[in-house]
């Protein structure tokens, strides 16, 4: 039964009311209904007076509801708690108490209470729907089965139809949403219930179809001129479609018609942050905090804003042909000097590549933000579904983890930035109407084709899903991202979407991918866009795609267990240092499944075993194959660079080390070595960049960085700069003999 | 140790110990408890002892115990043996590698057989005749001893900030690296001092935890002044100062220039940029020319 701790937490709340949703439960006390009527029509004062009179009602649940409605959360909580404690079998009070918890952001306590209600009465549809609404809000797959279960018991459950429609809308299943809303409307008319939520979703549906929702908005405001929740809901779907600017307009309207709608203030603040409008964001977040100080989203966002001075902002023009684009970088001060040149370089290259490939020129400055603390980054994406994200794109604003936020072997920040930059283009080309699957698919595809780690790298989880026939029909692929039905489905959906784009490129040519992208103008579903572009039905598309992937991965699909056995054999041999025994299984595993380039890749085991057997040239081939397949493990590639050097392939080793900056840019040794190599190769500007990065890393031994910069600048003809860095080197390390020799040479040249 | 102290310690290398003084080093690798640790402790001890022998120019100045030989009675016996060889003008360096424990009252250095407590070890160190002492306790929980072992002219370094940091430490690994390579020699004088080794080891430990994005389980401490006066390793050509009065005189001149250099650097904030770099250049050119002369006379990199 409900824990006391949770109760105590709630008791701390003052009057933290937001928008109370409509209670469709027919068990709702009759005394409350006239007051509800006032509330539904936006007659706040009358509603308050009406509810206030019920505060002394002899029926505890009526008292609790009245207290809740007038904003006395503490009192409502106390009465619900006492009611539940006095009657262990009370179901409806538990359900309503749980709803109160939902409103105060205590989701796990709410889930517990709904669960308790269902233990008492397993068929209570309102408890089921309450639980389903929590799951739906968290984008968890259990929501739909629960709703369907409730509907089997009672087909006239309006809340079930509304939840279904809402989930359909989130997943882009517009026709299904339409049908669910028809059913909801029939019940509303029959039961004479307030139509506000049905109309709101109708308006959302119109918007999702690219139509004008004004007729529904008018009906809603005629019914209740203070119904800000409608605009908040419309904004929610716009945010789901990544249409942040449009969402901002709606959220402004929400707080205009209902200034005490704290959730809308919070969402508006978060959304303004996504758009980079920091000052106004702060104002709305503070307003939200004043009315609802316990919202974790609001508190986290305000905390992030409190530390905004820790970030430095730079603005650079990027010139591509005749065009100049503005790029703004927002990097943490402790690492901005090291990262800036690499982030700017990759951003510039991505603009060049994507503007050419997708025929679109960015119309606004592009902002790239890197967060060394993943929690700070998470605050930026709190309103979006998906866990463990590395980066998020809000149109012209990209936010992502910094290389310092994760171990280097787990995170290739260059690929992540490339992926996110592709989103900038796919979102902006389509005015943000691109469906999630296609935007992610193109981003993954571009990582494979043009990114810093080219190669079609496909995870075993995706192969496994393919084998189990878990790939989704293309028209339904968005649901794999939004409401996954099995663990790992989001990652599998990324892979599937990338493969769909690869299939389109192979089957119809790359240009057709751009044609498909441009179909999404807000008026077409995925199914319609597929038909319009490829002149085949989505089912036929799915069939051809299935054949494509099954052909491409035929080897591993037919021998997945064998591949696992070979991997195991190679792994065990490596562990026991029986190098000769590792070679054949590792080679066979690579042959079966070359696209596997994760941490335990067979390519890596093969290279290690071959090297230990003194077969260095074969080991080099193994690691080069690994890299071509998309492998990027920095430790392995540093080793490959060393081997290439020893094999006399200095130029290849240098180029390989340059690529390491996009996975391991905070490694002083790489910058030091690369600086020397580039200087030797006469690539003085590149060498200077490496020594600058080395200096910015603020290592214990700063003399080599200064000395390197002195030499690079000298080669570039900057005598003044060279002298300063040379003297700085010697001020740090007065006995640094190479620097002393250069100093004497410099003096000699001057005299 | 804050940055200002670290810089002061690094600069203090200019004022080295008297030429006649010798450095005696005692290294103990304690009980590993498992083969991996046994081997690591033995390797770290060997690296530290080897660097000390090279720096002293004599194997007689160094005693190292590891494995089963590192028992409490052997430690007591050998530390007394070493004590018998030194006088008050010499310096003593003690390095304890391995596991330590702290029960809230007593620190124990884990050895095969009975452990040695912090007070037993303190008594042994106090019996050393050398006035200048450097004690490095690289074990877990070693921070428990830092205040207890403090004494005038003694520098105490511990791998952990207190007795509560009980996880096996990495300090010895990086200390061994510091004395065995040029990486720690930040002023490039071919000498690794205790100040440089400490800065290197703490820097590497922080980097290692950061690279793993894991919480740091050890925070080293150093108490005592002028850790830069202890020479732990001489690198490359700069092994032992030649017994040549001419070179010794030049090295003395070099020390004076180094003091000039420090004076210029101290004025950096108050001088206009151009003037600062002009003055810096003047001193550094003098130093470079003198170094050429020293190298010519000493046949390569003599160091004090």
UniProtKB/TrEMBL annotation, chain A:
Where is the secretion signal located?
A: 1-19
State the InterPro entries in the record: CellSynth/LPSAsmb/PSIAsmb (IPR051012), Peptidase_MA-like_dom (IPR039568), TPR-like_helical_dom_sf (IPR011990), TPR_rpt (IPR019734)
Pfam families referenced in this protein's UniProt entry, alphabetically: Peptidase_MA_2, TPR_16
Q: Does the keyword Signal apply?
A: yes
Write the record's keywords in alphabetical order, separated by commas: Repeat, Signal, TPR repeat
Annotated TPR repeat ranges: 91-124, 668-701
Which species is the source of this protein?
Answer: Steroidobacter agaridevorans
Q: Where is the Peptidase MA-like domain?
A: 408-550
Q: Which PANTHER family match?
A: LIPOPOLYSACCHARIDE ASSEMBLY PROTEIN B (PTHR45586:SF1), TPR REPEAT-CONTAINING PROTEIN PA4667 (PTHR45586)
Instruction: Return the protein name.
Output: Peptidase MA-like domain-containing protein
């Amino acid at each position: 039964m409900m824990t006391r701790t949770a109760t105590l937490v709630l008791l701390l709340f003052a009057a933290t009311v937001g928008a109370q949703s409509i209670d469709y439960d027919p068990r709702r006390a009759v005394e409350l209904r006239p007051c509800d009527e006032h509330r539904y029509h936006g007659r706040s004062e009358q509603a308050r007076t009406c509810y206030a009179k019920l505060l002394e009602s002899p029926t505890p649940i009526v008292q609790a509801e009245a207290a809740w409605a007038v904003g006395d959360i503490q009192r409502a909580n106390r009465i619900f708690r006492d009611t539940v404690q006095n009657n262990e079998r009370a179901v409806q009070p538990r359900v309503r108490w749980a709803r109160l918890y939902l409103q105060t952001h205590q989701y796990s306590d709410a889930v517990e209470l709904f669960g308790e209600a269902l233990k008492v009465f397993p068929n209570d549809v309102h408890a089921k729907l309450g639980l389903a609404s929590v799951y739906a809000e968290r984008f968890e797959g259990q929501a739909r089965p629960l709703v369907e279960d409730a509907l089997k018991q009672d087909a006239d459950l309006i809340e079930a139809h509304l939840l279904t429609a809402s989930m359909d809308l989130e997943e882009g299943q517009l026709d299904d949403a339409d049908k669910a809303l028809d059913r909801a409307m029939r019940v509303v008319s029959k039961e004479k219930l307030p139509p506000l939520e049905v109309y709101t979703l109708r308006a959302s549906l119109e918007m999702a179809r690219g139509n004008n929702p004004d007729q529904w908005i008018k009906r809603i405001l005629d019914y209740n001129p203070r119904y800000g929740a409608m605009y908040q809901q419309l904004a929610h779907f716009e945010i789901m479609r990544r249409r942040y600017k449009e969402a901002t307009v709606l959220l402004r309207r929400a707080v205009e018609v209902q200034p005490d709608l704290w959730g809308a203030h919070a969402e508006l603040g978060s959304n303004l942050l996504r758009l980079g409008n920091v000052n106004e964001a702060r104002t709305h977040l503070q307003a939200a905090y004043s009315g609802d100080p316990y919202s974790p989203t609001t508190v986290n966002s305000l905390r992030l804003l409190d530390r905004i001075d820790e970030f430095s902002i730079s603005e650079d023009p990027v010139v591509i042909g005749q065009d100049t684009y503005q790029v703004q970088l927002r990097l943490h001060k402790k690492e901005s000097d090291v990262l800036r040149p690499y982030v700017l370089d990759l951003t510039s290259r991505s603009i060049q590549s994507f503007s050419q490939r997708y025929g679109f020129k960015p119309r606004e400055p592009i902002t790239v933000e890197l967060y060394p603390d993943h929690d700070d980054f998470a605050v930026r994406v709190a309103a979006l579904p998906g866990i463990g994200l590395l980066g998020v794109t809000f149109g012209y604003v990209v936010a992502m983890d910094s290389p310092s936020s994760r171990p280097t072997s787990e995170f290739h920040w260059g690929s992540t930035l490339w992926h996110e930059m592709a989103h900038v283009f796919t979102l902006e080309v389509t005015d943000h109407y691109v469906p999630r699957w296609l935007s992610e698919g193109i981003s993954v595809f571009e990582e494979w084709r043009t990114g810093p780690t080219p190669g079609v790298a496909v995870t075993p989880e995706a192969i496994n899903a393919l084998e189990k026939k878990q790939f989704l029909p293309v028209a339904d692929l968005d649901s794999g991202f939004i409401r996954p039905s099995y663990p790992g489905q989001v990652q599998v959906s990324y892979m599937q979407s990338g493969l769909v784009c690869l299939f389109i490129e192979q089957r119809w040519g790359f240009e057709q991918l751009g044609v498909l992208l441009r179909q999404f103008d807000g008026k077409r579903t995925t199914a319609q866009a597929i038909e319009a572009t490829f002149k085949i039905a989505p089912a036929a598309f799915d069939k051809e795609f299935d054949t494509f992937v099954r052909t491409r991965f035929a080897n591993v699909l037919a021998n997945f267990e064998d591949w696992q056995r070979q991997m195991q054999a190679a792994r065990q041999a490596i562990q026991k240092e029986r190098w000769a025994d590792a070679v054949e299984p590792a080679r066979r595993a690579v042959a079966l499944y070359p696209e596997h380039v994760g941490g335990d890749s067979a390519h890596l085991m093969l290279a290690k075993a071959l090297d230990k057997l003194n077969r260095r040239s074969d080991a080099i081939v193994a690691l080069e194959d690994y890299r071509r397949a998309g492998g990027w493990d920095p430790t392995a590639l540093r080793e490959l660079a060393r081997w290439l050097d020893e094999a006399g392939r200095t130029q290849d080793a240098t180029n390989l080390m340059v690529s390491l900056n996009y996975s391991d840019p905070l490694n002083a040794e790489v910058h030091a070595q690369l600086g020397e190599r580039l200087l030797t190769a006469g690539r003085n500007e590149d060498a200077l960049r490496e020594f600058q990065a080395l200096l910015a890393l603020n290592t214990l031994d700063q003399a080599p960085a200064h000395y390197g910069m002195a030499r690079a600048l000298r080669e570039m003809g900057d005598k003044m700069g060279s002298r300063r860095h040379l003297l700085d080197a010697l001020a740090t390390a007065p006995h640094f003999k190479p620097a002393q020799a250069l100093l004497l040479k410099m003096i000699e040249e001057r005299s | 140790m804050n940055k200002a102290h670290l810089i002061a310690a690094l600069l203090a290398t200019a004022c080295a110990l008297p030429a006649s003084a010798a450095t005696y080093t005692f290294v103990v690798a304690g009980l590993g408890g498992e083969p991996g640790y046994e081997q690591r402790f033995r390797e770290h001890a060997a690296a530290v002892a080897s660097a000390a022998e090279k720096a002293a120019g004599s194997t007689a100045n160094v005693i190292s115990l590891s494995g089963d030989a590192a028992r409490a009675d052997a430690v007591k016996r050998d530390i007394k043996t070493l004590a018998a060889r030194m006088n008050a003008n010499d310096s003593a360096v003690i390095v304890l590698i391995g596991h330590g424990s702290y029960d809230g009252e007593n620190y124990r250095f884990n050895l095969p057989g009975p452990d040695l407590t912090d007070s037993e070890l303190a008594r042994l160190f106090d019996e050393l005749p050398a006035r200048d002492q450097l004690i490095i306790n690289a074990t877990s929980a070693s921070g428990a001893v830092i205040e207890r072992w403090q004494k005038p002219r003694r520098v105490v370094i511990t791998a952990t900030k207190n007795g509560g940091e009980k996880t096996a430490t990495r300090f010895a690994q990086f200390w061994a690296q510091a004395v065995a390579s040029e990486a720690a020699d930040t002023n490039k004088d071919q000498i690794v001092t205790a100040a440089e080794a400490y800065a290197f080891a703490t820097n590497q430990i922080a980097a290692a935890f950061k690279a793993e994005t894991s919480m740091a389980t050890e925070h080293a401490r150093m108490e005592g002044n002028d850790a830069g006066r202890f020479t732990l390793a001489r690198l490359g050509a700069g092994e032992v100062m030649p017994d040549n009065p001419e070179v010794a005189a030049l090295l003395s001149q070099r020390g004076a220039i180094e003091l000039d250099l420090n004076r210029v650097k101290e004025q950096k904030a108050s001088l206009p940029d151009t003037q600062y770099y002009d003055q810096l250049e003047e001193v550094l050119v003098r130093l470079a020319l003198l170094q050429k002369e020293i190298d010519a006379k000493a046949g390569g990199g003599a160091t004090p």
